[in-house]
Each structure stands twice: as structure tokens, then as C-alpha cells.
Amino acid sequence: MPNFYFRTTDQEGFSAEDRAFEFADEQAAIKEAKVTLAEMAADGLPQDPISMISIQVLDQHHALLVELRLVLEVIPSTTKVTAADR
């Protein structure tokens, strides 16, 4: 089975891809990366200044295959609702 590496980015910065994981193929590695990203989100949602957590999947040569991101975006209302309006 081929080796894949994960490089994560969270509020503390990024992790080096120093540990190899074996998966049957690229799709299996991406599936596990999605699970890992969800677990990272369960530990805490992204915060400023980055407002994003991500995981990159790299192949056995450390070439980037795909990056998965979870972005938290606060979009202010275009209309201001006051307590009297409720």
C-alpha cells in the first residue's frame, strides 16, 4: 500500500508531514483526511486571525495532492435589527 502524509494547519500553526500513513489509494487517504478535519473542528472551530483549519494530503514523494479547508466566515447582516423590531 502506498504511503501518504498529512500536513495540518490550525490555530497553533502547521504540523510537519513527518509521519507516513498507509492507505489503499488516494481516495482512501482523502476520506481519512476528511475525518481528521472533522475531528480537528470538534476540538475547536477556527478563530481569528486565520479563521481556517486545513489538512493537506501529500503523496509518498511529499507532493501535494489535495487540500481540504474548513473556513469560518462571519457575515454581518446588511440590515440592522434592533430589540424593538423583534
TrEMBL record:
It holds the Pfam family DUF6894. Residues 4-70 form the DUF6894 domain. Keywords: Plasmid. InterPro entries: DUF6894. This is COG0334: glutamate dehydrogenase/leucine dehydrogenase.
